[in-house]
Amino acid sequence: MTTWTSDELQRIAAAEELELAPLRRDGTLRAPVPVWVVRDGDDLYVRSFRGTDGGWWRTARAGRAGHVRAGGVDKDVAFTDVRDDETNDRIDTAYRTKYGHYGGAYVDPMVASRATTLRLVPR
């Protein structure tokens, strides 16, 4: 398993949105969608605004792989679930800190979507 470089982490974390294209079961990439991305330490995380009903999330969860682009970084990734409360607490804080200027109507659903937290792992 590879890791993010310091430069990649900084550039992606600084981007307002990440373009995420999950891999379908047939091996093709779904059309990219813009999602919010946050950093915690040396890891990057995304969540579905629509919770488990989000189409991109269901595809990402089923295929476990895809492609992301943000801040000039283009990377194939694997998606891993995040279930532990401690990590999700930090991710909640990261969403509130980075995107709080959008207000609760947008940030609250992201914080409430803890069950959809995916870690992006470079491939």
Automatic annotation (TrEMBL):
- Tell me the protein's name: DUF2255 family protein
